[in-house]
Specification:
Strand 4 (59-71) and strand 5 form a beta hairpin. The protein has 132 residues and is mainly beta. It has 2 domains: 1-41 and 89-132, no CATH class; 42-85, no CATH class. The strands form 2 sheets. The chain has a 4-stranded mixed β-sheet, with no helix packed on it. A 3-stranded antiparallel β-sheet has the order 3-4-5, with no helix packed on it. It is elongated, with a radius of gyration of 19 Å. It is 14% helix and 36% strand.
Length: 132
């Protein structure tokens, strides 16, 4: 799986594969986003296709029930999803894990301390995102 890692960041022990940018504890979200390769947005566009009927160049049509998700920095396509799909931005995922590490009245979602996300991995052009 290490061959799929484009960029990542970690705190503490170097991962088994030796890849990534080492960060010190309690770094702000913008540092994590940049060092982990998450300083981009997920953009969306209507699905369009070209038919070969009617003219040599074809006709451009839309498929109204779906949209294409793509990276804002590289314009690489990520997926085709339905129109009701709610996009969650990479930075929102980081914010969730940081806020989840603050003490809650009844439970905590992780064992990490505030802002101490151990590994943040971007795989396969950013579509698969894993937090360890």
């Amino acid at each position: 799986m290490a061959h799929l890692i484009e960029q990542m960041a970690y705190v503490g022990q170097i991962p088994w594969h030796g890849l990534g940018n080492e960060l010190t504890s309690n770094q702000p979200l913008d540092v994590w986003a940049k060092q982990a390769g998450l300083d981009w947005q997920i953009q969306e566009s209507p699905v369009r296709f070209v038919t070969n009927a009617g003219s040599p160049l074809g006709e451009i049509l839309s498929y109204p029930d779906s949209k294409v998700l793509y990276r804002s920095d590289t314009k690489a396509p990520l997926s085709v999803v339905g129109n009701r799909f709610k996009v969650v931005q990479p930075e929102e995922i980081l914010e969730f894990y940081v806020s989840a590490n603050k003490p809650a009245p009844t439970f905590q979602l992780t064992d990490c301390t505030h802002s101490e996300i151990v590994n943040r991995v971007v795989q396969v052009s950013g579509f698969k995102q894993h937090i360890y």
